């Protein structure tokens, strides 16, 4: 979630446009398949194949801080591993913690640490997992701001231990984007020249972001003076359907 104190908003802010589109299961499936799996993401193809993507569902996770403030992340999704995968040692499910950013947040790694800890605590309180049960949480930032994302991707990088204390420990790539080790940023600008993926909602969203002179954006969202939230609510279903049609 963007912090309004971190500077001027981007030309196409995340809240609530992309959040509304990312409420669709199809969008998260497309994200996993084309943007979070090698070579464009941290997940191995074998891990993706082990997931039952038909079980994707959005979960509501919120918690109360020590100052008695109600907090929640942007979006958390849960997907089960197939029974066959579980028999081979995979856990029961995978969580995907999505954060939407239009501007750089230098403390994003710490935010994911806080959210991941509260997510595990809440799941245990609900009886969804027991202490010691594996509960992988993939942490992802969707960033649509014009500059590339440069914030530290882990708390270890943020702290930076000196060589005299052993230096910053290295983390295997396979787990570097999971809680508590770090997160994976998806920079829209890094994918702007990537060929459009027919039927992929994420690919369509990136195309909208960089449509020349906002032509596509204006055609899709309309120019009438009504709130952005109401326009998205009216159009988001048709946007997902349009993205899935072949060009």
Word description of this protein:
The protein is α/β, with parallel strands linked by helices and 247 residues long. It has one domain. The chain has helices at residues 17-21, 25-34, 45-50, 83-87, 108-126, 155-159, 201-209, 215-221, 228-244; strands spanning 51-59, 62-64, 70-72, 75-81, 93-101, 137-143, 184-187. The strands form 2 sheets. A 5-stranded mixed beta sheet has the order 1-4-5-6-7. It is globular and about 45 Å long.
User: What low-confidence regions span 5 or more consecutive residues with pLDDT below 50?
Assistant: 2-12, 219-233
Domains, number: 1
Percent in strands = 15-25%
Q: SSE order, as H and E? A: HHHEEEEHEHEHEHHH
- The shape is globular
Count of helical regions: 9
Gyration radius, to the nearest Å?
19 Å
Q: Report the count of strand segments.
A: 7
How confident is the prediction overall: mean pLDDT? 80
């Amino acid at each position: 979630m963007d912090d309004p104190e971190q500077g001027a908003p981007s030309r196409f802010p995340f809240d609530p446009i992309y959040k509304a589109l990312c409420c669709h299961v199809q969008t998260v499936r497309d994200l996993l398949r084309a943007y979070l799996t090698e070579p464009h993401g941290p997940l191995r193809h074998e891990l993706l194949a082990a997931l039952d993507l038909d079980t994707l569902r959005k979960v509501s996770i919120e918690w109360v801080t020590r100052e008695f403030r109600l907090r929640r992340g942007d979006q958390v999704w849960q997907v089960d591993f197939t029974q066959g995968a579980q028999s081979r040692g995979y856990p029961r499910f995978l969580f995907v913690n999505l954060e939407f950013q239009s501007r750089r947040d230098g403390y994003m790694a710490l935010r994911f640490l806080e959210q991941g800890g509260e997510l595990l605590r809440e799941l245990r309180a609900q009886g969804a997992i027991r202490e010691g049960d594996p509960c992988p949480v993939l942490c992802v930032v969707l960033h649509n701001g014009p500059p590339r994302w440069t914030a530290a991707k882990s708390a270890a990088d943020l702290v930076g231990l000196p060589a005299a204390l052993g230096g910053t420990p290295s983390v295997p790539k396979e787990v570097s984007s999971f809680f508590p080790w770090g997160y994976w940023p998806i920079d829209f600008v890094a994918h702007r020249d990537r060929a459009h993926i027919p039927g992929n909602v994420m690919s369509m969203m990136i195309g909208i972001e960089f449509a020349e002179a906002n032509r596509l954006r204006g055609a899709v969202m309309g120019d009438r003076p009504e709130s952005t939230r109401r326009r998205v609510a009216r159009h988001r279903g048709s946007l997902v359907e349009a993205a899935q049609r072949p060009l």
